[in-house]
Automatic annotation (TrEMBL):
It comes from Dyadobacter luteus. GO terms for biological process: phosphorelay signal transduction system. InterPro entries: CheY-like_superfamily, Sig_transdc_resp-reg_receiver. Pfam families: Response_reg. This is Response regulator. Residues 5-122 form the Response regulatory domain. It comes from the Bacteria. Keywords: Phosphoprotein, Two-component regulatory system. The modification 4-aspartylphosphate is found at residue 55. The keyword DNA repair does not apply.
Length: 127
């Protein structure tokens, strides 16, 4: 089985560290960027990223701006993008999905819920 490669986009190094540690312990390969512009550049140059986890609230370019750009990249139009947000307000899930996210999870992250989302997105892959 190929190890799934996950790109974590978050402006908080603590969140990147926690997510990476959790996913690496479950055999995911993790890459990270602390801003959407850098992450988009990485995605433009790499076809082998399987899943993107993106913080919706970041300076410079937030997830709502970044997701349509990511989905517009020819090599990542079908790559699942999961919105990660501390905003757990009514309507936030719908707003994230309307921006193009394939899934949504709120902080603090429930690891079991995250793994279910990742497995759901992995079921469509060609291993």
């Amino acid at each position: 089985m190929n190890k799934k490669k996950v790109l974590i986009i978050d402006d908080d190094a603590r969140n990147i560290f926690a997510l990476s540690a959790t996913l690496k312990a479950r055999s995911y390969v993790c890459l990270s960027r602390n801003g959407a512009p850098e992450a988009i550049e990485l995605l433009r140059e790499n076809d082998d990223i399987d899943i993107v986890l993106i913080d919706m609230m970041m300076p410079e370019m937030d997830g709502y701006e970044a997701i349509p750009i990511i989905k517009g990249l020819q090599n990542h139009a079908q790559t699942p993008v999961i919105a990660v947000t501390a905003q757990a307000m009514v309507g936030d899930r719908e707003k994230c999905l309307a921006a193009g996210a394939d899934g949504y999870i709120s902080k603090p992250i429930d690891v079991d819920q995250l793994l279910l989302l990742l497995q759901k997105d992995n079921t469509d892959s060609d291993d």
